[in-house]
Structures are given as C-alpha cells and as structure tokens.
C-alpha cells in the first residue's frame, strides 16, 4: 500500500522585507498567494491525496485581516484537502490567527487546522499525526511528545507533521524547540510513523539516514541564505519505500555575488551586461559586494548603471566598502575647469588624497560635479 501527498511549509503570508519598495512589496505579497494556487494545480496534476503545510503558513498571529482573507480566497482554489500545522510564527495560542473570526467564518470546508497530536484519518488506511506549536517558546519541541505517545501504526500509513530546527543542523542543539533527529529515526524504526514532514528550514533538506525525514522548504524564496528554496515536495510513501520529487513553485529569486572585481571601464561594462541578462528582474533581489579601484569617471558610470538597474529589479543593493574610488587626470580631461570650479576641483582632490573622515564626502561631491559638467558639456 502507498499513497501520494504534497508537502510544503513556511508560506510566511504577510511577510514584509525592508529593502523592497511599496510596489515590489506588493508583488512579493502576491507571489505568496499565487504559490498557494500553484500548489493546488500541482496537487491535482500529480494526483496527490492532500496538501500538508508544516508550519508558518502565516508570518505571525498579527497579520492583517486582508492577508487572512486573501489566503482563504487562494485556498478555495486548491482542489484537495489541505492540513495546516501551526508553527513558531503562527502558534495555536489564545491570539492565534487560526482562532480569528475571519478565519473561522470563511475557512473552506476542505481546509483543516491541526490542533493537537491526535491521529487524523485522511483516507482509508492513511493517518496524519501533527505536532502543532501551542506557544512561540515551548520548553521542548512538541514533536517529541507526539511521537512518544504513538502506538505502532498497525495496518495504516502514518505521516508525522512537525516544525522546528533539527539538532543536526544547528550549533545550539540544546535550545528549546529543537527537534531530535535520533528520536524521529527511532519512531520510524519502531513502525510508529512512515514519514516525517518538517517545516521551519526554508531550503529543501533531508535529515537523518532513513530517507523518510524531509524539510520541504518555502515555496517562495525569502532570503539570500536559502540554498534550495522555492520548491514543494511530492511524497510517495508506503510500508517499504519512499520516493521524493521536488517541484518548482516560486517566482522570486535572491542572487548574491560575494565578489565583483571592478578596476577598469571594461569591468563596469561587464557588470552592466550581467545585470541586463538577468531574467524576471521585477521578482529578483540582487546583492553585490564590489571590490577594486575605479576612477571617478568609471565610478560615475557604475552608479548610472546601478541606478538604472534599481528601477527595474525587485531590489538591488551594492556594497562599496571595499571599492576604492580615486580621481585621475583622465577624469578632468577636456572639461576646461577654471576659476572657482577649478579651485574647487583641486580642493576636493586634495581631500580625497588625504583620506580621513572628509574623503568620502569629497569623493561624492567631485563625482556629482563631474556628472553635472558632462551633462552640460
């Protein structure tokens, strides 16, 4: 006997990012609701029995009413049962979003909140056992108690749904809320559960050695640190074997280049060409760490390219802490500065050469002066 379900987690509905403009933030929000509908289409196409959401469907229990309403409207389009496990962001406490009037009044009948660790029969011979978070800071991860209380799964295929960081993936393995991988492996070996579906980690990750414990990752990327996000897992599970297939869901990407060497005008042009070739710019966040040494003219050209890119990307951050900008004679060729303008230019060049606190301000002022001079030339 075997069956198939769709494993997802960490929708983070209502998440905001400080680096996104108002328009980009709305695109970011919409992508998360689009992901719910995409998961529904995948579940139908892949003949999944249900969708299991392992925690943090919402960014917090304080998300606004509109976010909840849009989530429920998106869930209406999912054609199979959906099981929502409260996680550390949206625990099932007195203030829980899952206890809000709008969710209770508008929740579609096929959407179920996992409120305790009692086995839920989802079909003949198939059970879900959830370990919902009842507070943001439990003394121990609730999955441990849920597994300890289970009898062997005689005659049924049982899925355990949990949320939290696994001890093998964190240096602080003794912190409250950490999941013990050995305990999950033991429950699998004892026949209590056949698969453990986890949330909290935003990248698709297998833990343990049994091939039966997986994080699905978030269906929409949220940060540069995520190595394999934007997916969900199709899980085929039976007594004897488990098969996992990753399916792409997300629209957003976070791209970080930890070293971009810029020393010549050609280097600046290569960066411009790379930025131009990035696809789906309006849903891409870029972080660049710029190193090297540029003349004022080349740096001004770089800033023009970056300013143009900021207009079309979801967000773009260029860190210039390790980029040295120094004026050279070619910066002032053919400008014909004289009088006050010439004296000002020389004073600014001297301040840059001296270094210190005023060098950065002088460099910015001189760069602006050159850009204005070339515009009016």
Task: Give an account of the 3D structure.
- By secondary structure, the chain is an alpha/beta fold.
- It folds into two domains: 2-248, Purple Acid Phosphatase, chain A, domain 2, CATH 3.60.21; 253-376, no CATH class.
- The chain is 32% helix and 24% strand.
- The chain has nine helices and 15 strands.
- The strands form three sheets. Strands 4-3-2-1-11-12 form a six-stranded mixed β-sheet, with helices on one face. It has a six-stranded mixed β-sheet with strand order 5-6-7-8-10-9, with helices on one face.
- Helix 1 runs parallel beside helix 2.
- The chain is elongated and about 90 Å long.
Task: Put the structure in a nutshell.
The chain is built from nine helices and 15 strands. The protein has 377 residues and is α/β, with parallel strands linked by helices. It is elongated and about 90 Å long.
Output the number of helix runs: 9
Domain count: the total is 2
**Quaternary structure annotation:** single chain
Strand residues, percent: 15-25%
What does the secondary structure layout of this molecule look like, with pairings?
Elements: E1 2-8, H1 22-45, E2 51-54, H2 65-75, E3 82-85, H3 101-106, E4 111-113, E5 120-123, E6 126-130, H4 142-148, E7 157-163, H5 181-189, E8 195-199, E9 205-206, E10 213-215, E11 231-238, E12 242-248, E13 253-262, H6 265-277, E14 284-294, H7 296-310, E15 315-325, H8 339-354, H9 357-376
Helix pairs in contact: 1-2, 6-7, 7-9, 8-9
């Amino acid at each position: 006997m075997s069956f198939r379900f769709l494993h997802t987690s960490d929708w983070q509905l209502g998440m905001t990012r400080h680096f996104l403009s108002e328009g980009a933030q709305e695109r970011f929000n919409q992508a998360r609701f689009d992901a719910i509908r995409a998961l529904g289409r995948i579940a139908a196409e892949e003949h999944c029995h249900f969708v299991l959401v392992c925690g943090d469907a919402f960014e917090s229990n304080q998300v606004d009413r509109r976010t909840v309403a849009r989530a429920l409207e998106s869930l209406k389009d999912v054609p199979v049962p959906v099981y929502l496990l409260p996680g550390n962001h949206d625990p099932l406490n007195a203030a829980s979003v899952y206890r809000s009037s709008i969710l209770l009044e508008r929740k579609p009948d096929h959407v179920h909140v996992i409120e305790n660790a009692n086995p839920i029969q989802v079909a003949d011979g198939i059970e879900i056992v959830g370990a919902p978070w009842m507070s943001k800071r439990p003394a121990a991860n609730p999955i441990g108690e849920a597994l300890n209380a289970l009898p062997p799964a005689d005659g049924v295929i049982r899925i355990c749904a949990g949320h939290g960081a696994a001890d093998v993936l964190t240096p602080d393995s003794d912190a409250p809320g950490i999941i013990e991988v050995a305990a999950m492996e033991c429950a699998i070996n004892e026949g209590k559960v056949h698969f453990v579906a986890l949330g909290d980690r935003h990248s698709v990750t297998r833990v343990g050695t049994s091939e039966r414990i997986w994080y699905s990752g978030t269906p929409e990327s949220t940060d540069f640190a995520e190595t394999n996000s934007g997916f969900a897992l199709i899980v085929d599970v039976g007594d004897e074997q488990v098969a996992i297939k990753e399916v792409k869901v997300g629209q957003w990407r976070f791209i970080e280049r930890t070293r971009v060497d810029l020393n010549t005008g050609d280097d600046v042009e290569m960066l411009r060409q790379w930025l131009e070739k990035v696809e789906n710019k309006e849903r891409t966040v870029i972080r660049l760490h710029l190193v090297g040494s540029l003349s004022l003219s080349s740096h001004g050209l770089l800033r023009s390219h970056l300013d143009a890119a900021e207009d079309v990307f979801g967000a773009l951050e260029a860190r210039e802490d390790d980029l040295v900008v120094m004026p050279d004679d070619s910066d002032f060729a053919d400008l014909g500065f004289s009088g006050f303008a010439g004296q000002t230019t020389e004073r600014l060049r001297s301040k840059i050469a001296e270094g210190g606190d005023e060098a950065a301000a002088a460099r910015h002022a001189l760069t602006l002066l050159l850009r204005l001079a070339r515009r009016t030339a």
